[in-house]
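name: query_chain
kind: protein
chains: 1
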Amino acid sequence: MVQLKEFRIVMPMSLEEYQVSQMYMVMKMQQQSSNGAEGVEVLENRPFQDDEFGKGQYTSKVYRLQSKAPAWLTSIAPTDALVMQEEAWNAYPRCKTVYCTSCIDIFLLLFTNRVVYFSVIKCPYFTKFSLTIETVHRADNGTSENVHGLNEEQLAARQVETIDIASAETDYWSYAIGSSNFDFSKFKSAKTGRGPLLDGWQENCSPVMTAYKLVTIDAPYWGFGYRLEQALLAGERALFIESHRNCFGWIDEWFGMTMQRIRELEQQGDCLLNEKISKPILLTDAADCEQSFSHNSERQVQQVIHT
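structure:
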């Protein structure tokens, strides 16, 4: 049975601020999650322009996720199968991300949550399996209906959940992905004065925006298909919560940054990621990395994305 669920994540920031917060969050979470054996390897990161998206940023990455796998999956999948390849065309506010993995991709975006507007996952081992994520961002507090333009049949099947980033989670997937220690009932941004987030904060928040994420999962396999679909939904939910909690929790680190500065830090971070993963093969060419570090030392970058 196809699972269709819409997650609505309300955020105390503007649409423009959200773009910066997402990029900063991705960069920092990737650094935190990468080491010599696992993590994110950046193959390519460059500007692009085409007729479909216009101008934007293209990235190609590899995710090594073995330790994130639950026991029941590792029992049926070889270690090398738990590697995911990502191609992303980020032309904010529109973006397309495509994932390909040699096994069931339960760990979609465990290290990152790109500004995803359309993503598709298909699995060569399970050719009938598919997962799509479509996101629409609106400058509202989660009250817009049918932003994805669903038909009557889809609307009848769709489940809707509004996520409160002020609520900390303690389930298995929150543990697997990692859980921040922010207490938003006491949190107050030094730079913006935003916070704390008390009960009902979404009703009177300004500025405010919402990420409407529609997750569609189809795993038509007898015996484990439903279990897989539910695990994917739970994993996605935990990831959405954690990444968006970090977006707000780190607001004093990214607030006021320009897109140019974020891009510079992103390039430096890509170089550091490949050093951590012991595979420094960024295709933007080695000269780019060397020039980048001549302006900002590794120590400075680490201070910006300190753990």
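note: Strands lie at 3-11, 39-50, 54-64, 83-91, 94-101, 118-122, 130-138, 159-163, 209-218.
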